[in-house]
Amino acid sequence: MASSGTSSFPGRWDVFLSFRGEDTRFxxxxxxxxxxxxxxxHTFRDDEGLERGGExxxxxxxxxxxxxxxxxxxxxxxxHSQWCLDELYKIMESRREKGQIVVPVFYHVDPSDVxxxxxxxxxxxxxxxxxxxxxxxxxxxxxTQAGGLSGWHVEHGYESQIIQVIVGRISxxxxxxxxxxxxxxxLVGFDSRxxxxxxxxxxxxxxxxxxxxxxxxxxxKTTLAIGIYNQIAHQFEGASFLPNAAEHRGSLIQRKLxxxxxxxxxxxxxxxxxxxxxxxxxxxxxxxxxxxxxVSALTQLEFLAGSRHWFGSGSxxxxxxxxxxxxxxxxxDGLYEVQKLKSEEAFKLFSLYAFEADLLDDRFWELSxxxxxxxxxxxxxxxxxxxxxxxxxxxxxxxxxxKLTTVGQLTVQYVLRLSxxxxxxxxxxxxxxxxxxxRGKDSDSVGRILDSCNFSAIGMKVLKDCSFISILDNKxxxxxxxxxxxxEIIRRESPGQPGxxxxxxxxxxxxxVLTQKTGTKAIEGISxxxxxxxxxxxxxxxxxxMTNLRLLRVYWDGLSSYDSNTVHLPEEFEFPSxxxxxxxxxxxxxxxxxxxxxxxxxxxxxxxxxxLNHLWKGNKCLENLKVMDLSHSPYLVExxxxxxxxxxxxxxxxxxxxxHEVHPSIPRLKNLKILNLGNCRMLYYFPRIIGLEKLEVLNxxxxxxxxxxPDIEANMESLLELYLEGTAIIELPSSVGYLRRLVLxxxxxxKNLKILxxxxxxxxxxxxxxxxxxxxxxRIPEITEVMEHLEELLLDGTSIRxxxxxxxxxxxxxxxxxxxxxxxxxxxxRICGLKSLETLIVxxxxxxNRLPEDLGMLxxxxxxxxxGTAITKPPITLVHLTNLRELSFxxxxxxxxxxxxxxxxxxxxxxxxSDDIGLQLxxxxxxxxxENLDLSxxxxxxxxxxxxxxxxxxLEVLNxxRNYMVSIPADxxxxxxxxxLLVRQCEKLQKIPKLPPSIKLFDACGCTALRxxxxxxxxxxxxxxxxxxxxxxxxxMLWNCSGLYQDHVAMALETLHRExxxxxxxxxxxxxxxxPKWPWHENMGASVSATLPPHWLDNNFLGVALCAVFALEExxxxxxxxxxxCNFECREGPYFSHSITWTHSGDRVVExxxxxxxxxxxxxxxxxxxxxxxxxxxxxxSFSLSGASHEVKxxxxxxxxxxxxxxxxxxxxxEIGNNMENFRSATRNGSVRQNN
Length: 1236
What we know:
Radius of gyration: 34 Å
Strand content: 15-25%
Number of helices: 30
Low-confidence stretches: 1-10, 48-54, 896-916, 1019-1031, 1133-1139, 1205-1236
Largest sheet: 27 strands, mixed
């Protein structure tokens, strides 16, 4: 597969800096560059800065393409440089095609000047009359797009502080960006396959789509899936790639899926059903990308992606499998079969591996052709054979190819075996261990275990270089064909006697050897999945002869929780342990290990979910032990003595609920890095810490009876993370100040915590301090010293009444969370000195009635959440928060006792400042970067927000729900980026102005007085059409809008189709009982069929319209989320399916029947690469519903053509005047007209 310039993001550079040299080279940009590089951010800056002939140099183009983030410093003379403008165009192209992050910095320029090309930017363009029109249009489009992105406005304040904030934000962007997966650099034919896949993905569509990739083993399904992931993962709110899905336990892979998307560890999932419920609940509102690789059974899909409504709008689920039928049964929306390499592709790939060059050596041309004949176009075989023949002479090639010709019926396995035979003995053993035991496991852990077996790290590199293994996300991956070859090699050691083989992994073979006691000293490793085995009694005799046993793993990989009755051990059970390096036994059923247990060579010991009471008596010599995991052993009452394990690095006792105290040997371990005692509910004592010099993570969260944190008497400078969540600790000892490298301190929900020690200020490295839910904590100590690294301070749910003025010493604070601090009455004005603060949350602080007067000094503030407070008059300095993106005053309605009197007074006297009217907003004119504004439930009256919104040119989401306006300000039509307008339950609302062309969701559910339906403007500029989101469907949610039973609704529907571009889909839900009497193919029930006219897929075809009536069951209401879905099927040609999704939010009771009308444009209904759709003669549309007590009563479908065409191809709607009465009759009386 060919190396793709656009398939994945190379990321050689972290940041590319674009700037106008004469403006900022030696001041702002230089300081920004220095700050980025000192933070370790690999930054490209054009140090020559010479505009050679006004043409951008190839080296700069390459640097842009290879950067993850571009920072564009817009200055006064930026647009006067054609070089800069070409650079910007390339940057925006990289953003569009590769997902590069673009961050604008407006350095002493107005963002609107950049966006609209006015001011100095307008003057620059006046000079470009001799430049081609096409080039100027590209520049203008790039400036418009870049000027509309979130960035920083540098105008007032200290530049050094703004630079530190920018660098901090860039650092977080680089960390939070989906991690690119490792993919071979030698890819051939990759671009074309990605392009073919893109038509199936339909990224412009907002529905949830499942796509299947199928093909034979070794054909490149996984490689293609990785390439897709790297290309599009950045477009989603979360992404997960799950390799070898067929080989993972259900609940474990569910946890992995959620952890990948949420970016945090997930608590234990006890069973599959719990996991399904958690996936639905967590992901139903998130746009996610999930790739399930190598699926082999329908059950795997059912517990990971059982239904589209598990995931948020716009999600994509990609499934790879060798089994096409499995994908058909799961009803994927599109299928892609990966084809074998074409001849020229195979030659190129072979050359890259055999000769490490793009071109074949002429001397080997004929020989290479013979070699490729054996590979049959399979990429895996091509790579392995190429590696196998590398550096051999022509004569050696002849000999090796002769071997292949004498095999007869050649198989891929044989080709792979040739490469295996060339390995050294230890490399073969290493390969076989991985194939039988460690595929998909953590590479560090596996390396540690196999190191102890005298397999060097060099061997792992050899296997990687020869394509036997790969490392993906720090996991050792191996192609299924490679693993099967390894298994076959082991089977051939003793075809009929598994007890004579070196490795056992098949549950049936293991069961037979153990029950029949046929094991021998040949056995070096056993991996036994007891979930796939019958009940078994294992005796000492069964293992007695296995004296060379190095690896023993007994585990449960079933879909249900562990069954402790599957494996039975006698009380006197013993097994050979002298050679053991790895012992993993889930559900160990005895109270201790055997008395003769010898773990001198043991590296890893894992006895999770065991019945242990104690591990052993006395002290054991475990000089090589690095990992001990006894987690979730509920009967363990005695902590093991580990004084004989000086090399121990990880000790996990999480969930050992009967453990009372920690053995004194543990705090003395000098090499311990991770100590996990989480959820040891009975643990009441932790001894003094006099060692643990290398400890990095200490977890005591969930130790609900632990009242005292131990004194620290040693230098613990390695400790980075301390978790004390949910403990009974009353106070921290002052010795906590010794933890000078501590980065995270989590004391969430420490309900008894009353005070913090003053020495907490000594924690100079602390970045995150979590005190959420510490309900008895009434104050935080004076911050006597500067804590410049503290970025996040979470005090939500505490009893804090005020913040100390010394909070000013938190120079680097980025997030301050005071949510639901119900006793908090005010904020000190000195909080406005926190120049790095980006997020301030005071939501739910019900006694807080004002914000600091100097709030406008917080120049870096991006999010201010003050919903649910008593604030009614925000300070006028709010207007100076020029970098604010999110502002919420939801529920800030002021006093309600005299509301109706004062509101009446307001209406009569037209006063704008009545004291009890509700929220009284100051000017918002300076908030030019505002994206999300929530003013819901603020007792806003008619006219109170007039002229407040017109300057918010970047606003995307506006929530005015549950207010008392009669009309929405006309200014809203000028908000050219507004995508979501929410006016739910505005019961007095009658009129909505023209909506801006960018609108994607208008929700007016419960607006019973609404008399007209607004429509978006058709005025979409070239710049808007270049933005990928403009093609997303438009939704109109009008549940319970009973006032819309009028003629102008029909007019509005006509206007929708006339005003919107044919490429844009839309849906509308309104009260009604019948389908409008327009020319439909109509039917009772949930499906309708139609015969397609001859040549239906011509150039005039625009799309398809759908309509359905949803009837409530008698006495029922809709009170929870629901989904409407329409699937299309055609009899002729390959399977063809498509879906449209509409979701009812469930936050409002629906009491009547409703009509849903949807329009699906051609671009989404018929895929651009489709070669078979034109042969369809019949189409069937089936509606399905979920999540609500209602049914589909009637449905209809109609093809839409451009106007003024002949034959049966008619306009979407007939002339308006002839249908007013029809629509009114249909919606009120439920009349239906048959048109089949």
